[in-house]
Design a protein that fits this description.
The complex is a heterodimer. Chain A is of the alpha+beta class. Chain A has 6 helices and 13 strands. In chain A, helix 1 crosses helix 2. By secondary structure, chain B is of the alpha+beta class. Helices cover 26% and strands 28% of the residues of chain B. In chain B, strands 1, 2, 3, 4, 5, 8 and 9 form a 7-stranded mixed sheet that branches. A 4-stranded antiparallel sheet of chain B has the order 7-6-10-11, with no helix packed on it. Classes of the chains: A alpha+beta, B alpha+beta.
């Protein structure tokens, strides 16, 4: 690479490839097979896409935290999570049919989502600050998707690809945190009525609140505050299940109700 | 099938346990056509020998309660094994590694039956109605077969790898408890290694109990009142080596902490 100018060009080129892959539903080979991107450069690729989407009129409504389970961190050889941006049009209603062609290779995972009642600005945000800022916890299913062929991702690949964000289905029974132990809040993931996985909040960095703290402190070090009203997906409580056209994937959570992602049957065209 | 052969096979398994010597499959060489029904006769002979030594029957445990494992083994109902008082490890006593071969720990939901449960025809609802109390538990399994390499009749004969059982601190009445959403977080050396809910056990631990009662009825047995029932591993089992510290935290059933000595 020929200095910073060369790197900026490379970052813009990769961002353009990822934007096109997402728009056309055509995945690209792993970026990491072509160029060694550091974490910072990978986030710059992500932010270049976020800027492009904002120019298209999409609005950031929150964040997702990824790579929060020990199993997935081991698999990718990392010891910390990553984050991506969520946009207004990423939010799907529970039970609303999701067009088959909307994603490339979707997978679904259950999460205990947060909606912030007040903004949080790191660094230096504590668990106590985070708990006080959470307005409600709500059942959710995250639809993850990769613009990298066959999910052959390394850490920089997924960071550059907006942390493999796809969409989010939010439940309809928000609850306050008081008196609730999210570590030991259980959830069951079902695909077409059959149990696929079970898990609990402790699978998310020990507690979903820890993921929120990590997020706001990481964003804060880059000078970004998380606004009141933001939706935060802190990470999955179970492994993900692949979604095929026609699948109905649902999650039940103790005390948080249920949420359903319904994938439309593939259309002929 | 001779009675002598059953007793000799049971004695060989007990000897493997006593000597802490893992062995090959029974079905590999000495008894290739051992079937599951006869394997239960071996298990019974094993337990009779333990009772003859003064141990007391305290309950049963279920094995292979995850549907994925059942499909791999080609069965549609859990295995059952018999628990005696010698299997119970008191709270805060280190796991005696010097008595075990290749121990692994798994968290379970445990029932105490208020009345006898006798199949056939037991439903999950009827099974749950016979439950007086629910507890958290950790089961320490220890196959007498090298590397846990066994076929279905082997593991049945080996009392479903039963070794030691730890009971949680709280007796909770089942009323109002949703066992399918009762969660556990399994922590090994301070790190969460697995989480699950009761739904991982045959869809529901009550379903597992009903299936076990019905399977026992096929062999002319019931589950007596007062029995404790370990309903099956909620997560994969984790290996225990010297110094390993394992915790199982349950939503409503308290926490259990174990150290391997």
């Amino acid at each position: 690479m020929d200095g910073e100018v060369g790197m900026q060009e490379e970052i813009d080129r990769i961002a353009a490839q990822l934007l096109a892959a997402r728009r056309d539903g055509a995945p690209i080979p792993p970026i990491s097979e072509r160029i060694a991107l550091g974490q910072d450069e990978a986030y710059r690729v992500q932010l270049a896409q976020v800027d492009a989407w904002r120019r298209e009129g999409r609005r950031v409504i929150g964040y997702k935290v990824g790579l929060t389970s020990r199993a997935i961190q081991r698999q990718l050889g990392v010891d910390q999570p990553d984050f991506g941006h969520l946009f207004d049009d990423d939010v799907v209603l529970s039970g609303e049919p999701i067009p088959a062609g909307r994603f490339i290779q979707p997978r679904v995972e259950p999460e205990i989502a947060f909606v912030l009642g007040r903004g949080l600005e790191g660094p230096g945000v504590t668990v106590a600050d985070a708990i006080r800022a959470i307005d409600v916890a709500v059942a959710s299913l995250e639809i993850i998707d990769s613009r990298i062929a066959d999910w052959r991702i390394t850490l920089p690949d997924t960071i550059a690809d907006n942390a493999s964000a796809g969409a989010v289905v939010l439940g309809t029974a928000p609850v306050a945190l008081a008196g609730r132990d999210l570590r030991l809040t259980g959830g069951i993931l079902r695909r077409n009525g059959r149990i696929v996985h079970t898990g609990a909040g402790a699978a998310v960095l020990g507690s979903p609140v820890s993921a929120l703290v990590w997020l706001v402190n990481t964003l804060g070090r880059a000078g970004t505050a998380v606004e009141a009203g933001s939706v935060v997906l802190p990470g999955a409580i179970t492994a993900a299940v692949p979604a095929e056209p026609g699948d109905v994937i649902s999650a039940d959570f103790a005390g948080l109700g249920s949420v359903t992602a319904r994938f439309a049957v593939a259309s002929a065209d | 099938m001779s009675r002598e052969r059953i007793i000799a096979t049971a004695a060989a398994l007990r000897e493997a346990e006593r000597r802490r010597t893992a062995r090959g499959r029974i079905t590999a060489a000495e008894w290739p056509d051992l079937d599951v029904e006869t394997a239960y006769a071996v298990q019974r002979a094993l337990i009779e020998a333990r009772l003859a030594d003064g141990e007391r029957r305290v309950g049963i445990k279920l094995g292979l309660t995850s549907r994925a494992k059942q499909e791999r083994m080609g069965i549609d109902s859990p295995l059952t094994a018999v628990l005696t008082d010698a299997h119970i490890l008191p709270a805060d006593v280190p796991v005696p590694l010097d008595r075990l071969i290749q121990p692994r720990a798994e968290p379970e939901i445990v029932f105490v039956l208020g009345r006898e449960l006798a199949g056939p025809g037991v439903t999950a609802a009827a099974a749950l109605a016979a439950v007086d109390h629910v507890l958290g538990g950790i089961e320490i399994i220890d196959s007498r077969f090298l590397g846990y390499d066994f076929a279905l009749p082997d593991v049945v004969a080996d009392n479903a790898s039963t070794a030691l059982l730890v009971l949680g601190p709280e007796l909770v009445p089942p009323l109002g408890l949703d066992l399918t959403l009762e969660a556990v977080a399994l922590t090994v050396d301070g790190e969460v290694t697995a989480t699950a809910t009761g739904a991982a056990v045959q869809g529901s631990p009550a379903e597992a109990l009903a299936l076990a009662a019905n399977a026992l009825a096929d062999r002319g047995e019931s589950i007596p009142a007062g029995s404790i029932v370990f309903t099956g591993g909620m997560t994969d089992a984790v290996p225990l080596t010297a110094g390993t510290v394992v915790s199982a935290e349950f939503t409503s059933l308290g926490s259990i902490h174990l150290s391997a000595g």
